[in-house]
Amino acid sequence: xxxxxxxxxxxxxxxxxxxxxxxxxxxxxxxxxxxxxxxxxxxxxxxxxxxxxxxxxxxxxxxxxxxxxxxxxxxxxxxxxxxxxxxxxxxxxxxxxxxxxxxxxxxxxxxxxxxxxxxxxxxxxxxxxxxxxxxxxxxxxxxxxxxxxxxxxxxxxxxxxxxxxxxxxxxxxxxxxxxxxxxxxxxxxxxxxxxxxxxxxxxxxxxxxxxxxxxxxxxxxxxxxxxxxxxxxxxxxxxxxxxxxxxxxxxxxxxxxxxxxxxxxxxxxxxxxxxxxxxxxxxxxxxxxxxxxxxxxxxxxxxxxxxxxxxxxxxxxxxxxxxxxxxxxxxxxxxxxxxxxxxxxxxxxxxxxxxxxxxxxxxxxxxxxxxxxxxxxxxxxxxxxxxxxxxxxxxxxxxxxxxxxxxxxxxxxxxxxxxxxxxxxxxxxxxxxxxxxxxxxxxxxxxxxxxxxxxxxxxxxxxxxxxxxxxxxxxxxxxxxxxxxxxxxxxxxxxxxxxxxx
Length: 502
Prior knowledge:
The protein is of the alpha+beta class. Helix content is about 40%, strand content about 15%.
């Protein structure tokens, strides 16, 4: 009798498991259907953001548009988190788990370009533009969050879904402040999204740690011919600091990266400059190593000031921990990538991609037809300030296929396609994978628990600490002058469209 009862209970458990999986699949299919029927609205979100093309800390029109869009579909929106006027936090639902989509919408200087034109043709000469396609992030995040909200309403699912649009990712500014302010302390997991030329996810260290700082030297002016001995040359201090770090490089780990630009270098040759400034980026494969190298750079700056009789001020402009991909979440994301698959590209889209690649002297391979296979990715030398989030809670990352392979970001050519049908199809596909991954986390306490255990294991030997000085404040004036100069002309190209999600 007991044997029969045990067999019956086992069969019932298996049946419940099958029913549960079927139900989750059904929920995902409903989310996919919602995203498909709103493809035009999703494209509108990305396209409107493209023409706003606002630099970091000045994402005023972009966040206003996103706030109106998200509030129209029922999300509660809060602006101004951690002292950032353009930080947008949108949230729907209640209770646990709280899952946060982490992304950004800022553009880059001098990236203005006429969409679809392979020839250089700025919309507004010298103006900013989306030459990394961050406009597509807004489309994917809004679409996935809306679809998941609708599914949660239909099935009365507990939990909360949120979006954090962090300002000034291109300058590595906001996420360390947002983490320090506690915006993610109640979240159970996060999902980072970014445009790519293919679907991919990864685990382990994804990129480099970085610290960005400006060193300003103050001296004493004098006539270069009449009384130079009375001067204290601040630009000499800049040059000595530069040379000092070059001598140090030999004694640093091969993994280190450091680069600089002289931002204040004097007025004219016969004036001993009383002001000099140099801006540095210091990077390494992990946060402790980057901090160690940076501390050595600070000592070199002090030495340069001592040698020249000047004084030195240091301002940490930005910082980022290396992005840490959670393997458990990566595996879940990959399953959804494999279900959704890459978009079906048309013959016209393939031809455009090949023509574009040919025009750049690249091999004309066209668009990617299948996702990147799962596995640990090589650690990138670049940095992203969302890394700080990943060391505070379990985080998965998703790259979605919305650009042409071989066309590198941070070049004007990357601004050619972010409003194309290639980008639009990639936004829809990316939204589906993101929505499915959100639903996995919202409906599987076991997945969340397993991701948290993976996080504890990954961070056990490297506890998080902030690179930010205690008195650091958001750089509110960053990029203000440039945006105020170009925005009036850029407004002439704005799209007068309002998405109507249904």
